[in-house]
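Incident log, support desk, overnight shift.

02:14 A customer reports that sequence design results differ from what the structure should imply. Their input is reproduced verbatim below. On-call engineer (initials T.W.) acknowledged and began investigating.
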């Protein structure tokens, strides 16, 4: 089970494309604008989630996202995907997912048992956009 999840996450991360070309500069700073909404405004979650930051998502792209993750200064730091494990196990593909910016310096993949918004077990795939991003999102 673990190997297929890693393979799926790797394929997901490498298949992500830069689909936000229009308005890209506006997304580098929070808030990113339409069609994105701040997750904490629509779900019972804190405005800043340690490890993920302040999240914005287009409701049309749920559950996978992308979720745009901003640090305390409003700088785009990561793109996050939340892919339900049952969907991956049953052959659902998430193709051509957008990224917040084309530069990705590291990727983390980890299990989440569920939370408001994606209440089923899922994988978090976090694409960090610069060397300090993970540290800025940590606290």
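02:41 Re-run completed on a clean worker. Output:
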């Amino acid at each position: 089970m673990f190997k297929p999840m890693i393979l799926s996450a790797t394929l997901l991360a490498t298949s992500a494309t830069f689909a936000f070309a229009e308005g890209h500069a506006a997304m580098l700073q929070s808030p990113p604008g339409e069609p994105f909404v701040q997750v904490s405004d629509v779900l019972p979650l804190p405005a800043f989630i340690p490890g993920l930051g302040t999240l914005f998502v287009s409701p049309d792209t749920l559950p996978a996202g992308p979720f745009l993750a901003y640090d305390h200064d409003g700088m785009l730091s990561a793109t996050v995907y939340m892919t339900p494990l049952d969907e991956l196990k049953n052959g659902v593909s998430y193709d051509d997912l957008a990224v917040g910016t084309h530069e990705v310096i590291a990727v983390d993949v980890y299990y989440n048992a569920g939370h408001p918004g994606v209440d089923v077990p899922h994988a978090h795939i976090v694409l960090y956009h610069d060397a300090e991003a993970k540290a800025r999102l940590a606290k």
